[in-house]
Known about the structure:
By secondary structure, the chain is α+β, with helices and mostly antiparallel strands. The chain has helices at residues 2-10, 48-60, 74-85, and strands spanning 18-24, 28-33, 39-43, 64-68.
Amino acid sequence: AIEMVESVQSAPDPLWQTLRATEIDGGLNLFRVSVPIGVLGVIFESRPDALIQIAAVCLKSGNAVLMKGGSEAARSNRVLADLITR
């Protein structure tokens, strides 16, 4: 999980990148720009490392996230979520 978080951290900033620019008739410019989606809802099974991965990607991309982990890893997920929110 640490290596994955480090790779997300070292990746280029995905936000506010111009993905496409087109000049429209009349001198208007049309831009496609990467922006946050907003709030994501993610349901995952008994892999506590998924919580760390999802949180890292959402933080990097400027999104909020609501996560629901499987009951098999409820205690691990609770501890990891507490560490992330501190």
